[in-house]
Structures are given as structure tokens and as C-alpha cells.
Amino acid sequence: MGFKMGIVGLPNVGKSTLFNALTQTAAAEAANYPFCTIEPNVGEVGVPDERLEKLSAIAGSAQIIPTRLTFVDIAGLVRGASKGEGLGNKFLSHIREVDAVAYVLRCFEDGDITHVENRIDPVADADTVETELMLADLESCEKRAANVEKKAKSGDKDAKAQLALIEKALVLLREGKPARLAELTPEEKPAYAALQLLTAKPVLYVCNVDEGSAADGNAFSKKVAERAKAEGAGVVVISAKIESEFAGLPAEDRAAFLADMGLAEPGLNRLIRAGYSLLDLVTYFTVGPKEARAWTITRGTKAPQAAGVIHTDFEKGFIRAETIAYDDYVGLGGEVPCKDAGKMRLEGKDYVVKDGDVMHFRFAN
After folding, report:
1. Distance between CA atoms of 355 and 336, rounded to whole angstroms?
2. Within 13 A of 195's CA, how many CA atoms are on the CB side?
3. Which listed residue, 6, 15, 127, 294, has the most CB atoms within 10 A of its CB?
4. Are 169 and 195 in contact (CB under 8 A)?
5. CA distance linking residue 5 with residue 173, whole number of Å
């Protein structure tokens, strides 16, 4: 289990080029004209984590299974998309299914690549995208409110609670603010998420820069970073062109290529870390002779629910979790030395799983 990220943006900002590079496929046609991506392309990538390699080496695991990140490349939005302009509602619906939304913004100048609005202004592009998503949410909420209001007036408690959440979103949307800014109690959050509002999704701004700006960004990306900071959103700087070249190289040539570009790692790694941070995700591991495997959970998840990510039976029949901290596992050289040193802990149902925990679950069938 990883997470699903939707890639949105105006046409010709480099979305499909970036998607192709990140998933190392040719599934999305990258062409210099609007709407080259009609159906959403879906690609999965393994999440790079050097900890998994170290654990596997120590345990002599036959297989390494990383957690997965799913990218959904959604067709380019244009002004009026919420009213059916361009490809309209055909792709707005796909955004509802993702965990977070990456706004790919054009932060480079190139006279050979047209811009749908004939200007280079990534902040304005972000406004255009967000406005269309807000308008779609506004229409959706107003329709729902009308339907739910009838039930609420009849005394239906669930309908009253749902109407209160819809009204929270409507206040923001009518002020031109995204639904994610709603102040919610922990109890309200699951029901609010169930409304599947487009602008309630966490946002990651992806600044697509020229090759020379890949390491430090440029004036365009700095403006985006200021916006992200003000909103509490995520931001990452990537050159889709570099990522595309990197994806086509043999494994042995990649490190030298990155060094030549002044980069310590590929953009995929930075994008994944930014996504994990945005969604407050952590990773725990299961390690044995057959496989070393990574599992993604939300920070704060307790042991039974973490076990349930592997299989629902593990959560239902949870007894305890044999737990070793990653640093102890690596530092002492595996499970047996950790047991001998008293570094394996038996954790119960209230244990909150930490990032890097190496776990073995005991459960009743």
C-alpha cells in the first residue's frame, strides 16, 4: 500500500513528459498540443528506500518489495473546465479518487512550446486550475445541500451532520477559497473526506523548471514556493526534461548523469518525500528470508491497524507485534542479535507504529 497522486495542470506544462519519466513508461503521449492525454494514464512506481536494501542484505531476503506510489496523469485543465470546456467533467471525476493532487506548473520559458494562455506565470496557472476545481466543488456542494437539507429537516441526525459539513465547505468556496481550509474536528475529518471534494485534497506544487534550474530553482519556482508556504502546501522543483533523460539511461550511467546536472538524486525521490510529508505518511518493514517488504501507513496508526494493511485477518485477530527499531536492527546485525540484546519489544494494541519499525505480527486465526 502506497498512495495515489493525481497529476493536474494546464495543457503543455510538462505533465505527460513528467509522468512518462516518473513511471518510466511511454503510456502517456507527450506532444505539443492541448489534450494529448484524453483518458487518465495510471502508472505505479516502487518507492525508493535505501533502508529496505540494508534490511534485505542483513536478513538475506530472496526478494525486495517496496511500497508503491500510483501516479494518475489527468488531462490538461483549461479555463471553463468546470462547465465542460475542453474535456470538462470527464477528467474532473478522476481527481476525486486520488489521495493528493500535484499541480504541475510551468516554470520555464521556451518559445517552441506554446502556452494555452500565451504567458508564463505559474502562480496564475495555479489559480486557473484551483478556480476550476473550486467551481466544480461549489456546484457539487450546492446540489448535495439541496438534497440533504430535506432529510435534515425531517430530523435525520446523519443528514444534519452531513449538511453542517457541506455548509462549512460552501462558506469557503463562495469566498473563493479551497475546501481544504475548513476547520474540522478529528471526528469530522473522515465524513468530510467522504464528500470527495476536489479542493479538499492536499496539494503539492510541482515546479517544472529548465535544466539549468533543476538544482536550485528559479524566479518562477520561488514565487510558487512563497505561495506554498503561505498555504501550508507542499512544493518540489523538478526538470521534466532531465527526468525524461534520466529514465532512458542504463542504471550504471545514472549516478554520473545526476552529478553532471548538480543533483544528488532523481526528482522522483524528492517528489515521493514531499508527498509522504504532505500526507503525513510513514513506513514500517517486515523482514525475513523470503522477502523484505515496506508498508505505508499514516503517522499515528496503531499496531492492529498497521497489521491490517497486510491483511484484514491480522487486524481482527491481533495479539501483539514483535518490534525492532530500524537503527537497532541494522546496528546490531539482524533479528537474533536484537533479541539477545533485549532490543525486540512486544507491543500491544495501543502501540503507535514508528517510521522504520521492523515488525512481526502475532494474530489468532
Report:
1. 21
2. 34
3. 15
4. yes
5. 23
- The identity of residue 296, as a single letter, is T
Q: What is the DSSP letter of 62?
A: S
Closest residue by Cα to residue 192 from 172, 208, 220, 212: 172
pLDDT tens string for the chain (365 positions)?
A: 568 888 888 888 888 888 888 877 434 334 333 333 445 578 888 888 899 999 999 999 999 998 888 888 876 555 554 454 444 455 566 777 888 999 999 998 877 666 666 678 999 999 988 988 898 899 889 999 988 988 888 888 888 999 999 999 999 999 999 999 999 998 999 999 999 898 999 999 999 999 999 999 999 999 999 999 998 899 999 999 999 898 888 889 989 999 999 999 888 888 888 888 888 999 999 999 999 999 999 999 999 999 999 999 999 999 999 999 999 999 999 999 999 999 999 999 999 999 999 999 999 87
Q: Residue 55 has what DSSP assignment? A: H
User: Residue 175: phi, psi to the nearest 5?
Assistant: -90, 5
Nearest 5 degrees, angle CA 27-CA 29-CA 33? 160
Residue 297 β-bridge partners: 282
| Pairing of β 345-347 and β 63-65 | unpaired
CB atoms within 10 A of CB 10: 27
Q: What residue type is assigned to position 98 of the chain?
A: V
33, 194, 247, 348 from 198: Cα distances, Å: 26, 11, 31, 37
Q: Look up cell 522477502; give the residue.
A: 291
Q: Determine how β-strand 345-347 pairs with β-strand 318-324.
A: antiparallel
- How many Cβ atoms are within 10 Å of 174's Cβ, its own excluded? 12
Helical segments of the chain, H only: 15-23, 50-59, 89-95, 122-153, 157-174, 188-193, 219-231, 240-247, 251-260, 267-279, 303-310, 312-316, 326-332, 335-340
